[in-house]
Write a structure and sequence with these properties.
Structural class of chain B: mainly alpha
Oligomer: heterodimer
Shape of chain A: globular
Radius of gyration of chain A: 19 Å
Strand order of the largest sheet of chain A: 1-4
Number of helices of chain A: 15
Distance between the termini of chain A: 20 Å
Largest sheet of chain A: 2 strands, antiparallel
CATH topology of chain B: ABC transporter involved in vitamin B12 uptake, BtuC
Strand content of chain B: under 5%
Strand content of chain A: under 5%
Largest interface: A-B, 42 and 45 residues
Order of helices and strands of chain B: HHHHEEHHHHHH
Order of helices and strands of chain A: HHHHHHHEEEHHHHEHHHH
């Protein structure tokens, strides 16, 4: 009975999200809200891709920014140096470059677990960062790539902020549907099975290393798309996009929101960007606030905001 | 490359290796005992360097700083372990995650207290000159770092092999739970181990400051290199830290000379090779990868 209403409600919500800048056009702060929402959605895509690893696959990656950054640089370089401005090409290039990098790093890390996985992803991503930082002729080094032109989709110029927002929010919805489909598929179940008991899944005949690697590459390419969207949104790519700070932010988002859920990473992205953008103008120590938040959630509420909310909801209904 | 330059770079590599040993020994010790990869290790290193800066400004003595900063870091470790890590004992991944939060806070607070611009610390008087070696001039301070690294390795080995504390540490690395069942106060041992790890990171920070300076981001560099050293050498063993740093120090130095901006690709290749061929690290017993 209730399930009947879920799809229409979701469709209306999705439509409202994508058209946000148009129906809020009258608001005084519509432009600002659109920008903040756009940045939240870019990071929500990134966090959703990380949660495929952390939440579903039990692979705590602390190097996911490598793929975000690879996508951002790929989009930036494709637009600035290769002279193409067609979105499918540049976005495809971003996903492809990120996937190739994920294949390289993934091959080396998927055979390890837990803290070792975390340690290795961190180390490899930091090496990627150092190369991006120093390979000035391609990446612009510490200056980054500035003034990246926004692409075209066929004949539609995506340069106006409202259209850029529509691109980001539509991509976000597509990624939500994709992650939902993956999580619900037999493949997603196997992934969770590997998280819970890797040896048993191997005994059942699954090639666990290959399944983990495929998840790593999928998550990497989605992160690359998020990176490309970030490059177009901010019209800027910096080495920080590849750095450990970006990896940690995504991890905080997943953990604070709630790992292994669809809503968790999205809520986490909103909370972290709120702390960074809005709170940091009030208190100059946003990083400290993030750190405290992270410590508190690890110590007290490992299941994240979604978990707390779910528990409260269950208690209310009893 | 001329033989003179070769020799100089070899010494550079060795002094970097010695520094890496001081840094990685603490990380490896904490891991061996507690199964925790302390991701705040780089932040502790950074804090050690900045504390040294203030102590030198206050007392004018580098040597006082070299004593005071590790002590302060040890104290911090002694507080943090019972306060935070102990609550999560047995949940290794959560403990590691917790150390990320700690490092965010520490690094941000360093920025608040000392500012975010690049600072430098002079080498102590007497070591700020250079020494003539094999027809070239070589900075005396770097030779001192090599000596310190070797001396520390000797002292730590002695503590490991010849003292009751060392015996407890070796037993704890083997099986901490069993050690507790035998009546050793594990809580105290863990707190002391974590403190010792933090103190070693702090010491590395002080020693590195005159060579590399002080700047934002130094924590991440230190963390990266110490992780690479323990992965290559082998986690949790002292010999692993020695072998890893003696290998990575010169490899990084020569990589920078030969490949410039792709020096870290050399490190990447080494780590990748070790993982594929010897997943325990060169001297470790714990398999990092299957």
């Amino acid at each position: 009975m209730r399930r009947v209403f879920i799809w229409p409600a979701a469709a209306i919500g999705a439509a409202a999200l994508v058209t946000f800048p148009y129906w809020t056009a009258e608001w005084e702060s519509s432009r600002f809200a659109t920008t903040v929402l756009r940045d939240i959605l870019v990071f929500a895509i990134f966090a959703l891709s990380l949660d495929l690893l952390v939440g579903r696959g039990g692979m705590p990656s602390l190097g996911h920014a490598a793929f975000f950054g690879a996508g951002a640089y790929a989009a930036g370089v494709a637009t600035q140096r290769l002279g193409t401005d067609q979105l499918p090409l540049t976005l495809g290039a971003a996903a492809l470059v990120a996937a190739a990098l994920a294949l390289l790093i993934g091959t080396l890390v998927v055979r390890s677990e837990g803290i070792f996985f975390l340690m290795l992803t961190l180390a490899f991503a930091q090496i990627v960062f150092a190369i991006a930082f120093q390979w000035t002729s391609v990446t612009g080094g510490s200056n980054g790539l500035a003034g990246i032109a926004r692409p075209f989709l066929g004949g539609i110029d995506l340069n106006p902020p409202d259209r850029m927002y529509v691109l980001v929010s539509a991509t976000f919805l597509a990624v939500v549907l994709l992650v939902r489909a993956v999580a619900g598929s037999p493949y997603g179940r196997v992934l969770v099975g590997i998280r819970e008991n890797e040896r048993r899944m191997r005994a059942l005949g699954y090639d666990t290393a290959r399944i983990r690697l495929s998840a790593f590459v999928l998550a990497g390419s989605i992160a690359g798309i998020a990176g490309a969207l970030s490059a177009y949104s901010l019209r800027f790519v910096s080495a920080q996009d590849v750095g450990i700070g970006t990896s940690i932010r995504a991890f905080v988002m997943v953990l604070v929101g709630g790992a292994g859920t669809l809503a968790g990473p999205v809520i986490g992205a909103a909370v972290v960007l709120y702390v960074e953008r809005i709170l940091s103008s009030a208190v100059p120590v946003a990083e400290t606030v993030l750190g405290l938040l992270f410590v508190a959630f690890v110590l007290l509420a490992r299941q994240g905001i979604v978990g707390i909310g779910g528990a409260a909801w269950a208690r209310m209904r009893r | 490359m001329s033989s003179e330059l070769l020799f100089q770079q070899a010494l550079n590599g060795l002094s970097f290796g010695a520094l890496l040993f001081i840094l990685a020994a603490g990380l490896s010790l904490v891991f061996g005992m507690m199964d925790v990869v302390n991701l705040a290790h780089g932040a502790f290193y950074m804090l050690g360097a900045y504390l040294a800066l203030s102590v030198v400004q206050l007392t004018g003595s580098f040597w006082v700083a070299m004593l005071a900063a590790p002590l302060a870091l040890g104290l911090l470790g002694l507080i943090l372990e019972p306060l935070l890590l102990r609550r999560l004992r047995g949940r290794h991944l959560d403990q590691v995650l917790l150390t990320i939060g700690v490092s965010l806070i520490v690094v941000d607070q360093i920025g608040v207290v000392w500012g975010r611009e690049v600072r430098s610390l002079a080498a102590p008087a007497g070591l700020d000159g250079s020494v003539a070696l094999f027809g070239g001039d070589y900075p005396a301070y770097r030779l001192f770092v090599i000596g310190l690294g070797i001396a520390l390795a000797a002292v730590v080995t002695l503590v490991y092999r010849r003292t009751a504390l060392g015996m407890h540490i070796r037993a704890g690395v083997e099986d901490a739970q069993m050690l507790g069942a035998l009546g050793v106060d594990i809580d105290r041992l863990f707190a002391l181990t974590f403190a010792a790890g933090a103190a070693l990171a702090g010491l590395a920070g002080v020693v590195a400051a005159p060579v590399f300076g002080l700047q934002p981001g130094m924590d991440v560099d230190a963390l990266l290199y110490s992780l690479v050293v323990v992965v290559v050498g082998g986690l949790g063993t002292l010999g692993g830290a020695v072998v890893g740093s003696v290998l990575i120090g010169p490899a990084d130095t020569f990589g920078k000379v030969l490949f410039q901006e792709f020096a870290l690709a050399v490190i990447f290749a080494i780590v990748a090779l070790v993982l594929l061929l010897r997943p325990t690290g060169l001297l470790g017993r714990i398999r990092i990868a299957r």
